Amino acid sequence: MGQTISQIFGGVDPWYVPSEKLEELESWFTESYDERTQRLVVRISQIRWRAIPANPTMAIVPIEFLQAFESSLDTALDECLGDEWKTEWWIHRIWNLLEWAVEDSDYRNVSASTLEHFQKLVDMRVEERSTEPQIVFRLYVDRLRAMFYAPDFGLSEWFMYTFASWLRCQNLPPMPAYLEYMDPPFEWAPIENPENAIERSIANLTRRPIENLLEPGEVGECGICRQEVQAGTDVTVLEPFCSHWFHTGCIHCVLRMNAGGKHCPACRAHIVLEEQ
Question: Which stretches make up the RING-type domain (predicted)?
Fold first, then answer.
């Protein structure tokens, strides 16, 4: 992402010069594209031998989920037209989901064959690193569409639901009650009545008025839902772990989910939460 010193290729990409927006984006992520690529490649390699085989139960994804997911990809393509910032942001969001899949502590939500599909997405980003982001994203969308209809696809319905919710899929049906790994309803709402130590720890994260975090005249945008933060809104800052901030409901939802561990969605800083 952007023009960075490559840890994989050992040089600076001379073909694609990033815009100021992309340089700002990379600074916001606090991690270069090459660092992120290398980390994800290593992680996939580490867990591939522990991933489970694809099976009919995993391979059957409700058609409503697929339709909602495809609708989301269409929306993303429309958003990305002429906007490098949103294009790189969507690619970053998809990569977060890949990381969630490979970091799941029980390796229960992704099959070995689907890990191979994920590896191809990573390889494509490396191979196309000198290509403009919008072209890369179109390639990603085509690959994702094909992946979810592949006969050896294996991503549990629970994870597919999380995937679809994170990508803001429109008209997403409720999570089926029979799902083995069913979590509490996926709602972008602050934790009001914590039920355990982790939820109390999340609810107690620092909150500040958005006006205290912006320069005069600057417009704030949540790094999770990408919606503008209205004046007078208190947002949650992930201090002392990092300085990134988000809508309180958005970050509470992300940290409460089991997939991906407790990390900042932007910089991957580990968020230490009380468990007892």
Answer: 222-268
**Do residues 244 and 183 make contact, with C-beta atoms less than 8 angstroms apart?**
no
For 125-144, how does the pLDDT look when each residue is reduced to its tens digit (9 = 90+)?
Answer: 777 766 777 787 888 888 88
Confidence band, pLDDT 50/70/90 cuts, at residue 22: low
Q: Is the pLDDT of residue 95 over 50?
A: yes
Give me the residue spans of the domains in the chain. 20-166, 187-276
Distance CA 214, CA 209 (A): 10
The two structure tokens encoding residue 35 = 């660092």
Count how many Cα atoms sit within 13 Å of the Cα of residue 128 in the half-sphere of its side chain. 17
**Of all helices (H) and strands (E), which one includes residue 208?**
strand 207-209
CB 69 within 8 A of CB 163: yes
Label residue 261 left, alpha or beta by phi (over 0 means left) and psi (-120 to 50 means alpha).
Answer: left
| Neighbour count for residue 90 (Cβ, 10 Å) | 24
* Contact present, 159 and 62 (Cβ < 8 Å): no
Mean confidence (pLDDT) of the chain: 70
Asked whether 264 and 271 are in contact (CB, 8 A), the reply is: yes
* Overall CATH class of domain 187-276: alpha beta
Q: Count Cβ neighbours within 10 Å for each residue of 92-127 and write b for 16 or more, e otherwise.
A: bbbbbbbbbbbebeebebbbbbbbebbbebbeebee
Q: CA-CA distances (angstroms) from residue 172 to 71, 157, 178, 250?
A: 10, 13, 17, 18
| Edge-to-edge strands, sheet with 207-209 | 207-209, 234-237, 245-247
Hey, what are 262's tokens?
């407790």
Whether 205 has a pLDDT exceeding 80, the answer reads: yes
